[in-house]
Write a structure and sequence with these properties.
Elements lengths: L26 H17 L4 H20 L10 H12 L6 H20 L26 H10 L15 H20 L3 H6 L5 E2 L4 E5 L5 E5 L2 H13 L1 H5 L20 H14 L7 H14 L4 H8 L4 H4 L7 H11 L4
Antiparallel strand pairs: 1-2, 2-3
Helix pairs in contact: 1-2, 2-4, 3-4, 5-6, 6-8, 6-11
Amino acid sequence: MARRAPTPRSEPAERLPAPPLPESLPPALAKARDQFRAFLRIECGLAPTTLEAYDRDLRELLAFAVDRGADAPAKLTPELLTRHVQHLSGPRKLAGGSVVRHISTIKVFGRFLHARGMVEANPADILDRPTRWRKLPGVLSPRQMAQLIEAAGPGLYATSADKEPGPIARVLWMRDRAALELMYASGLRASEVGAIAMDDYLPTLAVVKVTGKGNKQRLVPVHAGARRAVEMYLKDCRPVLAREGAHAKNRLLLSNTGRPLERVAVWHMVKRAARAAGMDRVHPHVLRHSFATHLLIGGADLRVVQELLGHADIATTQIYTHVDRSRLKSVHRKFHPRG
């Protein structure tokens, strides 16, 4: 049995809420769920956010199964799993990418049950993983990226005219500017930028050590503009935030209460800067998409971009080759014998 499980991909908010997990699962299903979660955490070494994604999908599967009389892994028949997938794309009205993610979780769970002898045959073998519709990522132009970063300025946390901003609000924009610069300079995910430790930022080498999915680490360059923003934050902002509490844990970027910066806080940070810049539909992954796209437009090799993004499979990186057809055509004309 493979020790590395595929990562369910995050999708936009679902239109209908998932059914709640029953207050008490049948003992056999509860045991299978606990053992599966331990397998993902200990043997696969998945990151907490990935574990949460698996658990959400598994909870929905078990709620569906229990509601239809299943009380043991052997009752998770191919027919029941098929009906569950049909329910996800039918009454639940999930997007295609979300359904693919659920199927990924179900197939890993089915292999686990079979490998541990809880079922005679893998009930998820019947499920085909459909080819995922490759939606082109949202990308900002270099000019728009500059506007977004500049929007994280001294007025970002300004209060009403009759209320003077406090000491934290006066410097908090520096943290936002540093985070935005790092995400765009190094193509970081929201969870990655919040997890950077003080020792991970190496200004003398102009790199940052990033811990990505599956606890894989990579070194990514940081350009001079991003380094200036981080140094300003370290000098004038982080000391103020660190005094708010003893929860800093050596993290580079802190919340306004002195705690490590969570992924949700990074999302709010990007949204706040986007509103100030007059933009909508901008989220942390747009900065990552823009990072990769601008590198490819500038002539970077696809394999290099793959390493910088921390993609295990270059097929994941290849989606960015679709955003600039003009460059691909020019390369073809330049290097093909009959171009």
